[in-house]
What does this fold into?
Amino acid sequence: MVHAFSQELVLDGSTRPDPGDLLSALPPPLTWAPAARPRTVGRAWLDTFDWRLYRAGLTLELRTAAGRAELMLTCPDGARITAPAGRGRWPRLAGSLPPGELRERLGPVAGHRALIQVARGASTVREVRVLNDDHKTVAWLAIDQISVNQPEQADVPARLAVRAVRGYQTEAEQAVAALTGATTRRAPPVLAAVLAPAGQRPGCYSSKVDVRLTAGMPATTAVATVLLRLLDTFDANLDGTIRATDTEFLHDLRVSVRRTRSALKLAGDMLPPGLADRFQPEFKWLGDLTTPTRDMDVYLLGFDTMSAGLVAAAPEELLPFRGYLTRRRAAARRRLLRGLRSERLAALRQEWRAALTALTSSPRAGRARGAAAAAPAIGEFAAARIARAHRKVLKRGEAITPESPPERLHDLRKRCKELRYLLEFFASLHEPAPHQRVLRQLKGLQDCLGDLQDTQIQQHEIREAAAQMMKQPDTPATALLAMGEVAAGVAARERAARADFASRFADFAAAGTQRRVRALTGAAA
Amino acid sequence: MKVLASYNIKGGVGKTAAAVNLAHLAAGGGQRVLLWDLDPQGAASYLLRIRPRVKGGGKALIKGTRPVDDAIKGTDFDRLDLLPSDFTYRNLDLVLDAAAKPARRIARLLAPLAAEYDLIVLDCPPGISLLSENVLRAAGTVLVPLIPTTLSVRTLDQLTEFIAGLPAPRPDVLAFFSMTDRRKRLHREITEKLPAQRSDVAVAVIPALSLIERMSTERAPVSAFAPRSAAARYYQALWTEVAERLG
It folds into this structure.
């Protein structure tokens, strides 16, 4: 049914309004009557940890009433899709929801990320009918009182929704006008309202290094600010990694460690003497600790695609390989958990935060404790380091020929990563448009080099796995044959990536990209 | 989108009560329903508390100068909308006669509503006219309330004959006995015998009940103001049979 008019308002201050008070200003002949007894509905708002639904303009809500749980997805155009929530505890992957339109819409957006409850509470809704002189309903008013339990207990200001019955827009507008006599304002999105008491807002987490630097800031303070942001990201992902909420917590946690290690290597000389040297080995330990589990995650996440790509073997013949990977992942995860719960990590986090906070709390403190007696401004420093990293990428890339050994490409990949991280750390010093274009060209090259590296590792892993599995007497020959086919596919991908390299590098080394990098580094200086 | 017309050549046989109650039951069952009150007396509009007025009158609707969509009103019930009556509908035959392809005009007006509604119920005025021919050509099923008398059975035969003479596609006809009184022997005999003999007569009957008459004071369908009453159950039984017929 088409409803021509609807408007949502929020009452300033009042959490439990009386309908009689609210509607006392209705113009004659309009009157009102309660529509039904108030009903209470349990509500929870779901999103991925990195707010993928919110960023895609979607709102997912779990509503529970009379023992029935229903999911309601609101799309950017206001359309709603509802579905039974099915069995299962939250957090859950979208793939575990009952099949149907809602799951199909959510799946590609949420990807590998679990749906977690970002807020929880209950709504008590009182519905009131606005009537004309025929006692015909011309508009519905819903008064929604929301009590929030999570993230923080609070009663949020009551929300009023006026909905015109089709063909009665004028009367509904009169009802809204009567309501706006009370102290109302346009209602913010409900998710924003329920998060506000806890000082949160939707979309508040991002794994990006979104720090605001200014070119004149002392380099020591700026580098410490970047490192502190990376530590925040690490901390934000620690609990989800330990609980295994989804695989991407570990991914984001690892990226924060890798970025920290690169920052220490490329800009650690701007920190007080000895600080980078002291923490570098600790972050290397942390990086090494997380690698085996992530490697297995990558394998298992891509397993279905890998199975589907088989031509000669049947997908089920790979099941022993899957079992092997799952067992290896479980063992790797046990070691990971021991490390993440260790006193060594607790001390690392605490001491690292204390050191960085001291450097960022006062620019003067940063300057006084700076490595160099006269630490440069970050604009000048970033320009020099990005220019140097860029030169390295060009030099190493130009030296690569079709005969170059894989180690040379691996080395180039690491230099690209360093340039990428420097660009990300200091993004706020650059004009967004040329910065994005340089990043895009660099990413194209990195993807190609990443494919090369991944395919080499995967081939090694498959050989290793096959050797291990052969030692087990119950491994069927068909499993090893299927793995051979997978290895052949991976080798073909490696050859394709290698063939692609020259054109990707040529794009990156093109005069236009070089000019943009020079402009960026010039602008930063 | 299915189109169901509540129609009889005779008046006062329970067409409007059937149209309003069946439309309400269909909407209650989850269908998106539009009821078009084509009778200039506007009884269906009155029962749903909607003023019998369409801007520009029936002429604007039929000529297409006012979109049907704009004239639709929401009722007090979920998924049930009404296209109200208008006193100018008394002249619809003249307006239709002036239109191109006059006998198919209503069907053409309804076609664009298919995306919005699952069921359209037409509450028609009595008589045989160009409007009734339009209704018969727009409807997939024609529901014919009959008072159980020998004469009304004859009326059904006349109607069936008239429909048989229309160009295809022709609507399916389903008659039901309305305003029945089991104290009358003739009513008992006809309502028991005819449904067994004829496939175009429903088994369900709607007795003459005071609760149905109360619709005009309650201004609501029986199934809304007395959902557990015998009257509501009779209409539910009729709707079950009609819904099966609609497919």
In short: The radius of gyration of chain A is 29 Å. The interface with chain B takes residues 1-3, 129, 134-137, 165-168 of chain A (CB under 8 Å). The longest helix of chain A spans residues 432-470. Confidence is low (pLDDT under 50) at residues 368-373 of chain A.
